UniProtKB/TrEMBL annotation, chain A:
GO terms for biological process: isoleucine biosynthetic process; L-valine biosynthetic process. This is Acetolactate synthase. PANTHER family: ACETOLACTATE SYNTHASE CATALYTIC SUBUNIT, MITOCHONDRIAL (PTHR18968:SF13), THIAMINE PYROPHOSPHATE ENZYMES (PTHR18968). Residues 399-546 form the Thiamine pyrophosphate enzyme TPP-binding domain.
TrEMBL record, chain B:
Its EC number is 2.2.1.6. One of its GO terms (cellular component) is cytosol. This is Acetolactate synthase small subunit. GO terms for molecular function: acetolactate synthase activity; acetolactate synthase regulator activity. Catalyzes the conversion of 2 pyruvate molecules into acetolactate in the first common step of the biosynthetic pathway of the branched-amino acids such as leucine, isoleucine, and valine. It comes from the Bacteria. Residues 4-79 form the ACT domain.
Length: 573, 173
């Protein structure tokens, strides 16, 4: 054990290993939680962790995918980088889905993988895998540490790259001999990245162009994406749209960047967005996209997306501008800085009274709808009830699929940073570990994990962590004994040929929870729901709640694949 | 359309893999790529010849290249005043009798014979791709036994005509 509480790598003179140095560097950059799993190539690092008195937690998952999804959840709700540690070979390859997920959804992660010793790299050694090669296309950047003297610079650089500009995952592959190397020298920590200088301040000319366009607009709409959350620009966004009374459409991942219950909110846009939101995107004459990337699940068929609009796009990543949708007013900037510039800019009030009234009429005429059944629980109604009992204040995480869309539709978010969902990659098994990460990031706050019965089974091994760390997460399983979204598409587009989408055999989730020492509940009828929710949310500890929802319920409204944003089906009963 | 793109990059491990991997993933067609060190230590230059369908695609390509952490500067130099050269090595089947004929053929191309054996002759030619291609097709009837090309490397001429300056407007960002 070291005597000092917080040794600086530059000041200690006693020889230490590369692994010791790594732990010290992690302390220096302010890491408070590491999600990881040990193995051969990271033994020296785990040994250093054991010997150190570093003031951070190591959270041992039960599968590396659990670690990385947890780190994503942590990053999403804290804005801080999630840190992952895994061994070489299978440890590293088990992270791949999470790394890709983080790349798609721009989450800041720094991932440390062990690697076989330098002298055997390239020989197909035991548990060797080409981590650099595998992760190059799915990371913002990656490194293999070739010399111990590079380690401090690489670690600092990695955290810088992961958290600035458009955030993303960075992998550092550390050969075992590097973490074993003894050294007492102090090494360079400064770095210079001439090729990485993200533009954060908007070009004033483009701000003028955007201001002029807004002054002239008769049908303006703002599309608010996750970029607003990353740049912590929610206050500026609210001020801006309220000042000019601009209707706001949220992307799936942008939910919470603007209060969902604000009268200016049109809800979520896209495949399962609200009719009002999608028609606003279709009919608008000025579309101001702030921090969204015009994903195909949002735009539908590009031919019909905002066909009459002048498109302005504020994004910190220039490559997103004009990628999918031709853009007349490109603003490469941090969302906060762009909004601040817009707030200072002289803009005449757009004359859009008629437009606002039209949208209001749509809202009243075409609200989200659902049906109830006597046999099972209506998923939409259940989510409304969960929203009620949690005052809409909970941190909510989901997987991908029907439950995700229903949660996005019915768990109206008024606060930012309370929503972690796998958007771009659409990874099943994401939500539950993400909830664990979120709870570590925001201890003391209510975290609700919402999954389907399919997705939950992809990472249910992480239940052990709820017991081990006494995490009071409420695990809601929306159980329809099916891979609901796959089943829905098979019903709608494959003549009800339910190929491998019905999960007729499922474990007893109550017993499963109990086997981990966690309280389990099964709720089959709507009549039981309210009392059950009272119990779940009053209970001081984790609960796994198996809600039996209507098996053949579909998510509506919907833009069918290949269709335009104005061609929604299932808009009304 | 064919575009010539140059990228100045930090010579870090895996940089070529990053660039070609990205181009492949995003379905850009690389016709040739050449890489080498520059006058500055640690900085390399890549010259890519790519085939793209429209301006939007080339803009996306340059932006994606620029986004790479190791890429310092990207230029589409196709419409600029440039010098562009590639080198080709061509081994042609030849007898001592034919050798003279072939040597006569290559003279206007300022190509040179760099190896000769009893049944073949190896020619080196440097120039624009059109020139090397022209020579290759002239030599084809003799029977090309082996052909290797470096791909184009290029940069801007020292003096750019004034009209070219407006080119910058092509880029929206």
């Amino acid at each position: 054990m070291k005597a000092e509480a917080k040794p600086s790598p530059q000041m200690t003179s006693k020889p230490k290993t590369g692994a010791d140095l790594l732990i010290e560097l992690l302390v220096e950059v302010g890491v408070d939680t590491i999600f990881g799993y040990p193995g051969g190539a990271v033994l020296p690092i785990y040994d250093a962790l054991y010997r150190s008195n570093a003031p951070f937690k190591h959270v041992l998952s039960r599968h590396e995918q659990g670690s990385i999804f947890a780190a994503e959840g942590y990053a999403r709700v804290t804005g801080k980088p999630g840190v992952v540690l895994a061994t070489s070979g299978p440890g590293a390859t088990n992270l791949i889905t999470g790394i890709t997920d983080a790349k798609m959804d721009s989450l800041p992660l720094v991932i440390f993988t062990g690697q076989v010793a330098n002298h055997v790299i390239g020989t197909d050694a035991f548990q060797e895998s080409d981590v650099l090669g595998i992760t190059t296309p799915i990371t913002k950047y990656n490194y293999q540490v070739k010399k111990i003297s590079d380690l401090p610079r690489v670690v600092n650089e990695a955290f810088h790259i992961a958290t600035t500009g458009r955030p993303g995952p960075v992998v550092i592959d550390i050969p075992k001999n590097i973490s074993e190397t003894l050294s007492n020298s102090s090494f360079e920590t400064d770095f210079y990245l001439p090729g990485y200088q993200p533009t954060t301040k908007p070009n004033p000319l483009q701000i003028v162009k955007l201001s002029e366009a807004l002054g002239k607009a008769k049908k303006p709409v703002v599309l608010a994406g996750a970029g607003i959350l990353f740049s912590k620009a929610t206050d500026e966004l609210k001020e801006f749209v309220e000042k000019y009374e601009l209707p706001v459409v949220n992307t799936l991942l942008g939910l919470g960047s603007f209060p969902g219950s604000n009268p200016l909110s049109l809800g979520m846009g896209g495949m399962h967005g609200s009719y009002t939101a999608n028609m606003a995107l279709y009919e608008c004459d000025l579309l101001i996209n702030i921090g969204a990337r015009f994903d195909d699940r949002l735009t539908g068929n590009l031919k019909h997306f905002a066909p009459n609009a002048k498109v302005a796009h504020i994004d910190i990543d220039p490559a997103e501008i004009g990628k999918n949708v031709p853009t007349e007013i490109p603003v490469v900037a941090d969302a906060k800085k762009a909004l601040q510039a817009l707030l200072k800019s002289k803009i005449s009030m757009p004359k859009h009274q008629e437009w606002k009234e039209h949208l209001q009429q749509n809202k009243e005429k075409y609200p989200l709808w659902n049906e109830r059944s006597d046999e099972a629980i209506s998923p939409q109604w259940l989510l409304k009830k969960i929203h009620e009992i949690t005052n809409g204040d909970a941190i909510v995480t989901t997987d991908v699929g029907q439950h995700q869309m229903w949660t996005a539709q019915y768990y109206t978010l008024d606060k930012p940073h309370n929503w972690a969902s796998s958007g771009g990659l659409g990874s099943m098994g994401f939500g539950f570990p993400a909830a664990i990460g979120a709870q570590f990031g925001r201890p003391g706050e209510l975290v609700v994990s919402i999954s389907g019965d399919g997705g939950f089974q992809m990472n249910m091994q992480e239940l052990m962590l709820l017991k081990q760390w006494n995490l009071p997460i409420k695990v809601i399983i929306m159980n329809n004994s099916a891979l609901g979204m796959v089943r829905q598409w098979q019903e709608s587009f494959y003549d009800e040929r339910y190929s491998e989408s019905l999960l007729d055999m499922n474990p007893d989730f109550v017993k499963l929870a109990e086997s981990y020492g966690i309280r389990g509940m099964k709720i089959e009828q709507e009549s039981e729901v309210e009392a059950a929710l009272e119990e779940i949310f009053a209970y001081d500890g984790p609960v796994v709640a198996d809600f039996r929802i209507i098996k053949f319920e579909k998510v509506y409204p919907m833009i069918a694949p290949g269709k335009g944003i104005h061609e929604m089906i299932g808009v009304t009963k | 359309m064919k575009r010539i793109i140059t990228a100045t990059v930090q010579n870090r491990s895996g940089v070529l893999n990053r660039v070609t991997g990205m181009l492949q993933q995003r379905q850009f067609n690389i016709e040739s790529i050449s890489v080498g060190e520059t006058e500055t230590p640690g900085i390399s230059k890549m010259t890519l010849v790519v085939e793209v369908s429209d301006h939007q695609k080339i803009e996306q390509l340059t932006k994606q290249l620029n986004k790479q952490i190791d890429v310092i500067k990207v230029s589409d130099i196709t419409d600029k005043a440039i010098v562009a050269r590639e080198l080709a090595l061509i081994k042609v089947a030849s007898t001592p009798q034919l050798s003279n004929e072939i040597q006569g053929l290559i003279t206007p191309f300022r190509a040179s014979v760099i190896d000769i054996s009893k049944d073949s002759i190896t020619i080196q030619v440097t120039g624009k791709p059109e020139k090397t291609d022209a020579l290759i097709s002239l030599l084809r009837p003799y029977g090309i036994k082996e052909l290797a090309k470096t791909g184009v490397t290029a940069f801007l001429r020292g003096h750019q005509p004034q009209a070219q300056v407006t080119e910058i407007n092509h880029f929206t960002v």
